[in-house]
Amino acid sequence: MSTVLLECHDLIKVFPGVRALDGVGLRLTAGSVHALLGENGAGKSTLIKVLTGVHSPDGGRLTWCGEPVHLRSPLEATRTGIGVVHQERNLIPGFSVAENITLQKPPSHRGLVDREAMTEPALACLAELGVDLDPHQPVRELSVAQQQLVETAKALHTESRVLLLDEPTASLSPQETERLFEVIRRLAARGACVVFVSHKLEEVFAVCDTVTVLRDGKSVLESAPLADHTHDDIVGLMVGRAHAATEMRPRTVDRSAAPVLALDAVSTAGGHRDISLEVRPGEIVGLYGLVGAGRSELVKAVLGLDRITGGEVRVHGRPARITSPRQALHEFGIGYVTENRKEEGVFLEQPIVRNITVTVWRRLARALGFVSAREERDVAQDLVERLGIRIAGLGQNAGELSGGNQQKVSLAKWLAADTRLLVVDEPTVGVDVRTKHAFHELIWDLARDGLPILLISSDLAEMVTLADRIVVMTDHRVRGEVDNDRDYDRMSGRVIRLIHDRAEPTADAADAADTADTADAKAVSG
Q1: Which residues contact 471 (CB under 8 A, 6 or more apart)?
Q2: Which one, out of 44, 159, 174, 243, has a CA that is 20 to 30 A from the CA of 56?
Q3: Residues annotated as region Disordered (predicted)?
Q4: pLDDT attached to residue 37
Q5: Identical topology for domains 4-239 and 261-348+400-525
Q6: Could you state, in order of their start, the residue ranges of all structural domains in the chain?
Q7: Going by C-beta distance under 8 Å and a sequence separation of 6 or more, which residues neighbour residue 74?
Q8: Helices (H), 190-294
Q9: Which one has a higher pLDDT value, 153 or 434?
Q10: CATH code for the structural domain at 261-348+400-525
């Protein structure tokens, strides 16, 4: 029988007006990979904070290896043997990679921190993740994906017996994700327990063996074998009803219509070369590629955030020289829902009404630039109802909303401006199953109403669900595109061939090639 490392008994945590945890139970055993699942607001983050000493429970108890334990701080949790990789990165930007990795257990010499001795253990942790980074490089210079890997390496350095991973793959490429899975399996084989929190159920079933599901602060499934449950079972437990696949209303695209956006042999200062693509009215064109392919950077160049050095951008049939997102919106009607909603998508410390109407102040302004508060409220309320944004009131700060509702606010501000072309970058990263389906329906319906959409996503299943055409990028270049027939295995096979720079087969050989690539595609997509 496996050793029980950490156990929760009837945990209760109450905040003003909210019972965040209501009798939660959890049992974490040595050598297991345990999935902790639930929708946004189900209590997962609160439970993680209780297990890592950030919050003290208001009821119930914790035991460590069978003995009662009281975790009064994150440092005390770390010393007990509990580590965590938070979804929101907890790195010091001005510190080096090595300093961040060894921060909680820095090497010392004669009572002083030994900076030179940091390099070796940091490199060992990075090597375990298969990551090649300069340990002396400041963290602020790293990409989001690289910072996530440094955060994970930091947790490895503490040699935790229980390691909590909160959405660890949100910023990772499929290859980086698979390397992380290998590390997770090795940790479990050594006798650790890894707690895996994710909204990507395909990843959960790929790496986990036990599962706890929270709903409304309660454990609706507690420390059960995952093999005893199907994908639909788990979704039904999370949302409180049997899961039904998203039904998209019929939609067609007029391929003969003039493109709203056309890139013709575009090159950029960021390294893109000879990029050509078109987006037509009511069409969803997907940009797919691994982290570092240059998809977001290409869009930012089109919006004037980087220099275009060659080729031509045309919007509504006429050449466009865009120098700023403001010009892109007001002159060409282009909106951009960024992947980084907390830093670029919403003003966290500003009310929802201001977040939604910021793009239309010019339109609402009266004499001397005065903006009517009533008109602001009318515009914001209409979009809150249309998008189903769950709020306490329009005066509530955006930072108080869940991630999914923040993303809806970010989208709402562009819809308020009557955008004529919408770029959506990683729309469902970090949102739960129900919210993801709602976003898919929303994007689909916007296109059905004639809005052209350029969709960037690292979620291949999401791409196959939504895109009419999938443009595949690697190394800042377009490798090809595929018309989407929404057969996941066939589409993923074709996309993976393009990523690995293998030519699309002839029609006669297509079926055989698709079959041969199915296993490869499934492995890469997690």
Answers
A1: 277, 285, 286, 287, 288, 478, 480, 481
A2: 159
A3: 507-526
A4: 93
A5: yes
A6: 4-239, 261-348+400-525
A7: 52, 53, 54, 84
A8: 201-207, 231-239
A9: 153
A10: 3.40.50.300
- Express each pLDDT in 159-188 by its tens digit: 889 999 988 887 777 778 888 898 899 899
Distance between CA atoms of residues 336 and 510, nearest Å: 36
β-strand 162-166 against 82-85: which pairing, if any? parallel
Evaluate whether 156 touches 102 at the Cβ level (below 8 Å). Answer: no
| Pairing state between β 210-215 and 218-225 | antiparallel
Structure tokens at 338: 């960024």
**Residue 318 tokens, joined:** 């006429």
Residue 526 binned pLDDT confidence (cut-offs 50, 70, 90): very low
Find the mean pLDDT for residues 138-153: 85
- 240 is written with which tokens? 């409180």
Residue 23 in tokens: 């009798």
The structural architecture, per CATH, of the domain 4-239 is 3-Layer(aba) Sandwich (3.40)
Q: pTM of this prediction?
A: 0.63
